[in-house]
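Notes from the 1:1 (GR / supervisor)

We went over the backlog. Supervisor wanted to see one worked example end to end before approving the batch request, so GR pasted a single chain during the call. The sequence is below; no edits were made to it. Supervisor asked that the structure be written out right there so they could see what the output format looks like.
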Amino acid sequence: MDDRQHGEPQRDDGGWLALEAYAALGDGRSVALIGLDGSIDWWCVPHMDSPPLFDRILAPQTGGYFAITPREPFTCERRYRPDSNVLETLFITANGRARLTESLNSGPAGRLPWAELARRVECLDGHVDLDIAIDFGTQADTVSPYLAANGNGCVFHAGDILGMFLHDDRLQIERKDDMGVRAFIGLARGERSVLAMIAGRNEPLVVPPLELVDERIDGSDREWRQWSRSLVYDGPYKSFVVRNALALKLLLSSPSGSIMAAATTSLPERIGGPKNYDYRFAWVRDAGYTIEAFLAIGAQPEAKAAFTWLLRRLAEHGAHVFYTLDGALGDCTRAIDLPGYKQSPPVVGNDARDQLQHGVFGDIFETARCFIDSGNILDAHSAQLLARLADQCADCWRQADAGIWELPQTQHYTTSKISCWQALSRAIELADNGHLPTTCRERWDRERERIRDWIEQHCWSETHQAYLFYPGSARLDASIALAVRFGYPSQDRLRSTLEAVQRELAAGAFHYRYSQAAEEEGCFLACTFWIIEAWALLGQRERAETALRQAVDGLAHGVGIYSEMIDPDNGQYLGNLPQGLSHLAALRAALAIAGYGPQR
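Structure output shown during the call:
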């Protein structure tokens, strides 16, 4: 499973790169997206959910970006360093080869208290001329960037962001003004140069020596490799598991422990369509699944930090669909006055904030069970909180909700009911093993049986030999594959449902979320990996291995960073990226094939 990316980067007539042409850097606070042509087209500073300094991905003609590009025609080879999130790009021209090494730097003591985007370019053969272009973003024309000189240098301002562009004397500045920088550098074999962007928001700015920035590129690589080596997994597909774990690590906010669903907003689920969402929030579902995946591979500190953060939000706000990275409830959707990716209207905020989704109960309790099964301990306050949530689940499961797919039509979605069954099952297990109060244990058990009886009576279709999307429909839902992981006991019916999903929702190696979704979006990557995991847990390992190989081959034109969806007809990525749900589903599928998944 080689994540090396090759190609001749091409922007279309509108100035957009294909989404699969992007890689990602991260430092535990922010994530930057770098195109195959050397252009950083998205970077929110200093946090993942801050307004962007670079936003060319949503406005290719007017957005902010930071490009290092050969002046001559070129091709590229790109990869992450082994077991690291430091990126290397090889530019190949008729006259030479140059290597670009990029990192959002950390320090020897962990995350730096400022954003440090470092880019080192080295000439390996011949001679390579490179153009440097920086445009500071205007945040959808709400700020006007400017430069201000002082005794320590020339500082750029973009609204509340301030920073400095650092470079050595090799760089020949052609233009440097309020809107950005244009420069040129020529390198012969053995020569190198380092460029960096240092930035913060409403805070004093440290300007480190460029030599130290350069050293921190390799230091950051060592830190990433040390983290990868700390993972306990040593089974099949190890490099694949580690690469997906590294992608998930990019989305964990180290200041809080929260886990962002994706690093971007408004990358469309169908080009030009209206399904464009802001995923720069911490979903309970995504956080829970990621915590479980981290626990499975021994990333205990990340799992503990995220679980603590999640429990505190539940105590503070109650069970909501998502929270902001700093723990607030977040805003509903508002439009942004930008063209959007390939004319797909962009937004900030997310209207799922106020939805009722029963799936959050199953997600919370499955996470707690995984935490306990890893040998950890619940405190008394958290145990009382979980007991109250179990009571809430037992009371509200009969209500219609928005479902796992956050649809505007409330229904009695089958997956939601199974999630309520899952929540009460895990609560009972925790109570039986002394981790939760047992006062309501018998009540939870009776309610769990009522939920299962309701599912079997109302959600199963003899005609389709499958659990339906919701009672009364003739539609299928690929997320029911998760019921296998949840331990839902009707395995014969689940096998039959998976076969029906394969017949109706598969498109090549990938799967749509539910019936009729092909009319409005691409295939949802997590669904494909959930189905693979389900086959593995049901004992069909060979089938799961074949499906995993086909899915990974279908994603091989990227560099190991997955989006939310894919167009099965042409392989184009769709939706926000890096998409945590895609990566953790891929990781869990590999673990299940290796026998690391839950065995119920």
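Supervisor's comment: The chain is about 30% helix and 20% strand.
Batch request approved.
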